[in-house]
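Ligand-bound model needed. heme C.
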Amino acid sequence: MRIVGCLILGVAVAGWAVGGPGDPGRLTPPRPDLSGTPYGLGKPAGVYAAATSCSAAACHGGGQVGRVGSEHTTWAADLSAGPAAPHDPHARAYRVLFNDASRRMTELLEPNAAGRVPAHRNALCLACHMVGGEKDETVRAEGVGCAACHGPSANWLTTHYLPEWKGLSHHEKWGRGFVPTKNLVARVLNCAGCHVGGADREVNHDLIAAGHPRLAFEYTRFHYQQDYRKHWEERTPQPDFEVRAWVIGQAVSLRAAVDLLRARAARVAKNDPSTPWPEVSEGSCYSCHQSIARDPFPESRKDTPRGLASPHSRASGAVPWQPWYSSLGGSASEYHGILVPDRSGVAPVDLTPLRKEMEKRNPNPAEVARLAGRAVEELDAWLAFWQTAEDTQTFVRLSPDQSRDLGRVIAGGALTADGKLAEYDWDSVAQRYLGLAAVYHANGGADPVAGWRGPLDQLRKGLAFPRSGADRFDSPRDYRPADTVAPFTRLRTITTSRTGR
Ligand code: HEC
Ligand code: HEC
Ligand code: HEC
Ligand code: HEC
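Prediction:
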């Protein structure tokens, strides 16, 4: 295996602004939902309409950016104030298929000019860069329009503002092709279809190596991304919105990633020659892509030639599996006990068998497909539980002690019992940072988590991609795992003590 000369890509971790004080703690255990499957899986049924049908002044085209009734205006208003100004990136999702990056990608993916399909006609690209399955050119040109997130409107366009519609449950609305975005599970399942991928659309290592950005979705990071101008006001404070968004985002992204792996493995098991195996983007990016100038993971060298210490990959010498989606989501059992009451009857998700198979030298595709299918079922049961909690507003309101316990689980998991680093891959550490930031913000940055701000800032700075003038490197070139020991230790100490100090 050739090690690539430069360290590349990754995802920037934006800092979160500090919010106001949180509500006093109160715990309402969610009611169980043992149906085993959340609604909102897959694409909603129905025929799509152009966003222009939403843009009438009396509907969503009120002309005042950021106001209720002006959702279309807010979504569409363009980058005239400069690319750094807040905007909705979805409005240009189709247009980018005409840019230089897309042209270059197309050329690299299909060296033979005669057989090349331009990106804006390529079904592979269109699957995520516009409203699903659309043939009509005007609808396509709108990119990721209203229907991509709210569902195809044929069955509800003329009724969705009437009282009878408002009386329907979220589940019933989904049945009519409307995505009930107020339910975080239904909302994020839909984002993940494009931002993680799935059986019908994916960004694999071939696309990434040709220049496509890596898809590294994390819901809270995307939700709070500073330049993403949202056309809605999240009705907060809601109990622990940030923690719910975080835990649901983790579970949904992991579900999408594991289901994509299942689909890939199943295709290979049926000898599909067009599916690469093993798919390289299922591996830890930074275990292969390392700086040749400076070893970014000196701490890990004693254990393994790779970046991430996993007992299975250490034994086999294989590349560790997917730290971005699986490092925290995979150890959901760590925080399951805090967020899900025992009596709910929902079991924690166990990814160990799948990880073990994926970290063999030659993972067996049929076995991977089977184990991934089982993990998806476990995750679905988990998500069904959260979805009901969302719909009935019976989600957990974390008590101060639970917040602290959650912080301890997330921070403590980065360290071994004797205070050494247990995880050093940039992906895992960035995920831990985002989880801790969610707990911090859910508490308004105040007690019971006083003293978190300093170590959190330290982690964020260490994870940031370096800048060179106006440009940002697309990699965590300066990241030093050893620098995370102090902030993680500090956070573990704070969250272990009863006084929070
Ligand atoms: C699985 C869904 C998916 C597929 C398939 C896909 N994309 Fe994307 N693409 C995305 C998402 C999501 C982003 C935004 C990524 C981010 O920033 O996190 C993106 C970003 C991009 C960007 C960068 C946009 C910018 O503003 O800089 C380009 C260019 C692009 N895609 C082109 C393509 C082309 C060309 C193809 C087909 C060869 C393709 N995409 C296939 C989902 C997809
Ligand atoms: C990238 C996904 C996405 C796209 C594209 C999108 N929306 Fe939304 N929209 C959401 C989410 C998420 C919410 C917040 C949850 C909610 O209030 O339903 C929302 C909320 C809304 C609301 C409720 C606002 C409120 O304050 O209650 C309206 C109305 C709306 N969108 C209309 C539109 C229209 C019209 C378009 C097309 C111009 C559009 N949306 C495009 C995701 C999207
Ligand atoms: C139909 C596919 C699709 C869906 C559904 C979708 N997105 Fe996107 N999203 C894209 C594409 C494609 C881009 C890249 C657009 C560009 O830059 O040209 C993007 C870009 C973004 C970006 C900017 C990323 C960056 O790196 O700058 C954010 C933030 C984002 N999406 C959030 C969301 C959220 C939150 C949801 C769900 C509520 C969602 N998206 C649903 C396709 C989708
Ligand atoms: C098993 C090792 C391995 C893993 C894991 C891996 N890559 Fe790669 N990657 C390679 C190799 C080898 C090449 C060179 C391929 C070639 O030149 O044909 C490459 C090429 C690339 C390139 C093009 C670099 C250039 O200079 O042209 C990008 C970008 C990239 N990988 C990103 C990623 C991302 C993002 C991930 C994680 C999602 C990842 N890689 C995971 C081995 C890996």
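Confidence is low (pLDDT under 50) at residues 1-32, 302-307.
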